[in-house]
Amino acid sequence: MRFTAIEGSNPLGFLAALGAFRLSDLSWPERNIRLRWVLDGGWRPELLGFPDADPVCFCSALAKDAPWAPIDNFAELGNNITVCLNLFRSVVDKVTGSISPKDRRSADFVASFGSDVFEDRKNNRIEYTDLCFITGSGHQHFLGTIRALAQNVTSDHLHEALFVGWRYADKGLSMRWDPDDAKEYALRWQDPSVGGVFTVWGANRLAFEALPLFPTLPTERGLQTTGFQTRNRAHEFTWPIWTGAVSLDTVRSMLNMRALQADEPDRALLQAMGIPEVFRAQRVRIGQGANFKVSFRPARSV
Questions:
Q1: CA–CA gap between residue 65 and residue 47 (Å, rounded)
Q2: Phi, psi dihedrals of residue 278, rounded to the nearest 5°
Q3: pTM
Q4: Which 8-state DSSP code applies to residue 161?
Q5: CA–CA dist 54, 36 (Å, integer)
Q6: Residue 239 in contact with residue 278, Cβ under 8 Å?
Q7: What H or E segment, with its residue span, contains residue 149?
Q8: For the chain, what are the domain ranges?
């Protein structure tokens, strides 16, 4: 089953594909589900394990029965994950104390949000994931947005995001992982602040489900988010495209490969591992003062 609406060079598309993969793996573990990328007018994700699945039925099953992020378990955090260390630690203690062999979703999401080891003392809050692009500026909230998406996204939104094509007809509720969200004045015909933001709700909700594949890790240089590296003052997100059909655990391993983070990745080595392409997108802050926005620049092949 090929997700023909997703392009692997778009960070939002890549995250949405992984989110759909992770949800499918959790929903149907008996199917031995695998994911690969095929070159079809761009890099398209192909989910193996559903030989006769109808896309409409697949999206309906995801919308109704998939084990989506347990957002209610993070209610104490409020609308954002930019909270004080003690509050975040209390949530960590609660969710890690209730881990079961069958369901560790809450703990996996909390690990992707940030860490109770490091504190940004200047702002009295934890250090948080580099994938958190919205923290309250402009009335955009990280957890608040995903709660709203959970209430509004239907199977039709998922179908559009995975199979039909991105029409950008949904107003607001963007996690800002699409480079199209970087509405810089110098590059626009008219004022980009007029009319609001239009995005693809289904893709944003699916992308949030990929966060457990990008945990944060305390290091001697501070908090590190899987897939991110700073080089020449540019903070960048790097991800692979693979052609072999692999499991979710194998994807977790690939995302952590040191070879991906080299300034110039060794293409011969990566191709021997079934990775013909690597994309990299810069994480940038646009605007001044309290009205700044965080976005991705368009990705480039490295």
A1: 18
A2: -135, 130
A3: 0.94
A4: I
A5: 19
A6: yes
A7: helix 142-152
A8: 1-302
Q: Please, how many CA atoms are within 13 Å of residue 155, restricted to the half-sphere of its CB? A: 13
Task: Write down the pLDDT at residue 191.
Answer: 53
Give the chain's count of helices (H) and strands (E): 9, 13
Residues of the chain with pLDDT under 70: 183-196, 289-290
Alpha-carbon distance of 81 to 94, in angstroms, equals: 16
CB-based contact 201:153 (threshold 8 Å): yes
Sequence-distant (≥ 6) Cβ neighbours of residue 125 within 8 angstroms: 82, 83, 84, 85, 119
Give the whole-angstrom CA distance, residue 241 versus residue 219: 27
Six token digits for residue 110: 């909390």
Q: At what angle do helices 105-113 and 85-96 cross, to 10 degrees?
A: 160
Could you tell me how many residues make up the chain?
302
User: Which residues, other chains included, contact 173 with Cβ-Cβ below 8 Å and sequence gap of 6+?
Assistant: 145, 148, 149, 152, 199, 201, 204
Q: 172, 196 in Cβ contact below 8 A? A: yes
